[in-house]
Amino acid sequence: MMYATGKDLKKAEAHCGYFIGKGLDVLEKELTKTAGKYAFGDELSLVDVLIPAQVYNAHRFKVDMSKYPTINRVNSALVEIPEVVQADAWHQIDTPEGERKN
């Protein structure tokens, strides 16, 4: 990323947001075919474990999440699971103080 953006943080944010958005575009398209309560129907799968981290990064890099209603719906169901909440980026010991959630 430093090669593509140098030390310009705005460029780095835009660069990351662009590629996160590209991945979310593909995920949204696939989830519209497979999602129930979770990514593949109503049972948890490995894909579900990965979605909250992608949504976290999308917010972090200011990706417009309104383009991803299926991802948002699945993620909303996932964050109701206590184990998912405890594993998310906002609840880790190394999360910066200003970003932590209780």
Automatic annotation (TrEMBL):
The residue ranges of the GST C-terminal domain are 1-97
Gene Ontology BP annotations: glutathione metabolic process; L-phenylalanine catabolic process
Which InterPro entries does the record match to this protein? Glutathione-S-Trfase_C-like, Glutathione-S-Trfase_C_sf, GST_C
Please give the Pfam families that the UniProt record associates with this protein: GST_C_3
GO MF terms listed in the record are: glutathione transferase activity; maleylacetoacetate isomerase activity
Its domain of life reads Eukaryota
Q: Which interval of the chain is the signal sequence?
A: none
- What PANTHER family does the annotation carry? MALEYLACETOACETATE ISOMERASE (PTHR42673:SF4)
Q: What is this protein called?
A: GST C-terminal domain-containing protein
Organism source for this protein?
Answer: Panagrellus redivivus (Microworm)
